Amino acid sequence: MRRPGLFARPLLRALLPAQHLLQALPRCFSATPGFAIDQRRVAGKIEIKTIDDKIAAFTLNEKIRSPKVQLKGLDGKLSEPQPLYKLLDSIDRTNQYVLQMNKPEQGEMAIVQIVTRADLIQRINRQEDMLKNQKRLEKEKRPKQLELNWAISANDLQLKMKQMQEFLKKGKKVELLLANKRHQRKASQAEAEALLKTVREKIEEVGAAEVVPMEGAILRQALLTVKMRGT
């Protein structure tokens, strides 16, 4: 006689809920961490401009909308008006371009020059150098900022005053922001007034001056804008 337990196991498996069976089955595939990272990298936008992209930013050849143009020579003189298509036919397209020099209004004629690829690259380099210099000058003009706590220690104040003096000697404008700091001891009215007096004495000592009246109020946020005299 057969044991009933041998038939009970298949029967119980058949009666199990489908979700238990799915959990018991091995996974056919799994997410690969490396693949997920690659997807994130692909999703990120990284703008890379080649030299050809930069050259394409110029108004060249067929991008010129004026049917007739005036050619600017090396001596700066303008030629008689001529059809653009004839000028394009006369250049070596492998290395030469017709470059629009102006932005003509409605009914005006475009002024153009014949340039090479090397000429355009030189123009790009000059423009980028000018932009870098402009950004550098703008950065140099920005005031240097120093933050002071109303309850600043003597050592920290000495360090801040030294930094202020160094910036001022370099011709920089300095903004001193006085404020309370969170989770730190708050100064008394007398301490704050003494700090402000010390700072102003140091400003006077180094030959600087406040360029505008102090903004804000004692024991709140206050701003002193300082610059060397005669600069």
From TrEMBL:
Keyword Protein biosynthesis: yes
Protein name listed in UniProt: Translation initiation factor 3 C-terminal domain-containing protein
Translation initiation factor 3 C-terminal domain location: 144-213
Listed Pfam families: IF3_C
Cellular component terms per the entry's GO annotation: mitochondrion
Family stated for the protein in its record: Belongs to the IF-3 family.
One example GO MF annotation: translation initiation factor activity
Organism annotation: Cladophialophora psammophila CBS 110553
Keyword tags: Initiation factor, Protein biosynthesis
Alphabetical GO biological process terms: mitochondrial translational initiation; ribosome disassembly
